Amino acid sequence: MIAYFYNRAMKYIFYLLIFICSAFAKAQLESSYWYFGINAGIDFTSGNAVAVDNGQLVTGEGCATISDPFGNLLFYTDGSLIYDANHVIMPNGTGLKGNSSSTSSAIIVPLPGNSSIYYVFTVDTDDSLYRNTEGLHYSIVDMTLNNGTGDVDPFNKNINLLPITSEKLTAITNAARDGFWIISQFEGTFYSYELTVSGLNTTPVSSQVAPFIELINSTVTNVDVAAMRGYIKINARGNKLAAAHFSNNTTAEFSGITNVLTARSLAYTNGGELYLYDFDNSTGVVSNPQALLTRSDGGSIYGVEFSGNDQFLYAEVDYMNASTTQIFDFLRGEIIQYDLTSNNIAASAQVIHDDNITPFRGALQLGLDNKIYHSRIQQNALSVINNPDTIGVGSNYEYNSFPLSPNTVAWYGLPIFVQSFLLNGEIETMDHCFGEPQDFSIQTAASIVSIDWDFDDIDSGINNFSNDLTPTHLFSAPGTYTVTATVETLVQTFTITQDVVVFNSIQINDFQPIIEECELGFDKAVFDLTQIAEQINNNSNQEVTFFESEADALENINQILNPSSYTNLYLTQEIFVRVSTLNCFDVFSFKIITKLCEIEVFNVITPDGDGLNDTFIVSGLYNIYDKHKMYIFSRYGQKIWEGNNITGGWDGTSNTGLFHTNDILPTGTYFYVLELNEPNIKPKAGYVYLR
Question: Which residues belong to any copy of the PKD domain (predicted)?
């Protein structure tokens, strides 16, 4: 191509079709649906939280749901009943040994390497006498049964793992990323069970750490259960575990107390514990207990959750006084934020919200939209921490800001998940035109350690792969490519894909980038721009249009409507040509130049009034060489006439000299001298015959 584009050649994708390609939730969508409370539910499949009312649960606390990796609902449970995606109870889906009054009645964990098998772990409670609980169990759901809607395997149902445990469950991907740890806690011990492709190792990794939460030995009902309540959560990174204990009492404190109300009021209001631990997801060991809140602080802790970026821990704390007329007098509730990057995490505590509007106790749960939701009893809405990755009050807790569907009610609990399921990611890029290097990046709340990119472009050789966090790739040909990013985070590795379309680029031929035309007067000329279109384009799928400015060409506005007879604006003017298809366009530029052409002298004048040759005709002179001067001389060298752009052409008369008249001069040969008065153009001289 002729290298004359004045550096104006540009490639663009058609603006109306530009879009960010995102793979939100092509991976890690197992937490897309939530069912909880009284028939309440949330659908996150669009990327935003949408309240739904098709849930069948009636649960005060514990619940769990599971979707497939693409966000399709599979089943959900309150720990006792399992409902399938059609919201009917599964075959064999009754009588699980969880309890809807257990904080974390169940958690659902897929069997690695088998997309059809799910383990449902349950923990029981007994509100009358907690030591009557039946402990930690698991049951297996096979999704290949019951026409693909799932069935509980009757031979693998309610298999006991621990005879007694607290109401606490959580799970996380293991360090090898080939399985999961399922963790529960009782008194002073954490129990970690590993589930891999080989199945469940029923021998737990036991970690004895502070505090010791005693199971009260009392005949008074409902005083031992309070200490067993509260959530445990592992952060998405998989190296920290938080445990909330609603209370921490001793058996001795109830010695001699026989009044049920007095005993229960004491059990609820003595204060609880909030501890942070290190978790080793390669071994399952819980260690290094750090007290964030203790009984002496007076608060009862129930809900805990980590922010999506792993920097902050949030805890829900209730402050209550003992009462002689009811179980407790509610004073206030607080949401406390801890900065896990601080050298003194306990001292980093900030109260981001407090109120005494309603009883405060409730779950905190991170959603796929990276917001943390707070459930409060008997509410038709959830409260929301809108910006949990932000320090302090900027995290923006809003009371009851997410309305639930009519006739549905939140209670204490929200569904729990394998914490690594809460990771989500997007490939950010664009469909584009061939020949343009394209940028790629990952949008995720997780802390990225590394990314392995595969651009599905084998012909690009070693450039088909990249380990850069934000690579740029030049595709080798037009087409559709499935780009894969394997993202290693501080938690696990997850893979997301995105189809990227590389459109055919604009094809143009060599063309002459200058058009010159003679001035027609007043610095104007007429140009046929379509000759450029004919030169540049022989593809019927490409449209060629012309514009007076680059900005107009880019925006495709103010198109030149008469390109075949365009009148210039300036003597030298840049014209922009846009060559476009449905998806792509290129913008080039060329110049139109208005030039002064050679004049043409017609050397016969017949001033007889017939309208033909009545004046001395010089074509291309008037209003073009507007500074010219013309002189007419007789054969004897006498100057008999002079004129310029204003006077017009010689009409055969004399207007200068001693004896000039206004009469037509005699027939004969006369001579002219024409001074054009333009740089580098010499005067012209010749004869003219007057007849």
Answer: 440-502
Q: Which residues of 75-106 are buried (b: 16+ CB within 10 A; e: fewer)?
A: bbbbbbbbbbbebeebebbeebbbbbbbbbbb
Band of residue 27 on the pLDDT scale cut at 50, 70, 90: very low
Domain 10-14+506-595 fold is Immunoglobulin-like (2.60.40)
- Residue pair 215/226 in contact (Cβ under 8 Å)? The answer is no
Antiparallel, parallel or unpaired: β 381-385 and 397-403:
antiparallel
CATH of 600-690, one of 2.40.128, 3.30.530, 1.20.1630, 2.60.40: 2.60.40
| 263 touches 218 (CB < 8 A) | yes
**C-alpha radius of gyration, the chain, whole number:** 43
Biggest distance spanned by C-alpha atoms of the chain: 150
Q: Assess whether pLDDT exceeds 70 at residue 6.
A: no
Does residue 389 sit in helix, strand or coil? coil
Q: Which of the four pLDDT bands, split at 50, 70 and 90, describes residue 657?
A: confident
What is the spatial distance between Cα 51 and Cα 41, in angstroms, rounded to a whole number? 6
Confidence of residue 677 (pLDDT cuts 50, 70, 90): confident
CB 83 within 8 A of CB 89: yes
3 state DSSP class of 555: helix
C-alpha distances (whole Å) from 166 to each of 187, 214, 575, 681 are 8, 11, 78, 104
Q: Quick one: tokens of 41?
A: 């539910």
What's the pLDDT tens digit per position in 592-601?
998 888 888 8
Q: Note the pLDDT of residue 636.
A: 85
Q: CA–CA separation, 134 vs 124, rounded Å?
A: 6
CATH H-level superfamily of 30-422: YVTN repeat-like/Quinoprotein amine dehydrogenase (2.130.10.10)
Portion of the chain with pLDDT greater than 70, in percent: 94
Reported pTM: 0.66
Nearest CA to 300 among 324, 337, 336?
336
Q: How far is CA 336 from CA 226, 394, 656, 678, in A?
A: 21, 13, 105, 85
Q: Do domains 435-503 and 600-690 have the same CATH topology?
A: yes
Whether the link from the prior residue into 211 is cis, omega within 30° of 0, is: yes
Residue with the bigger pLDDT between 293 and 435: it is: 293
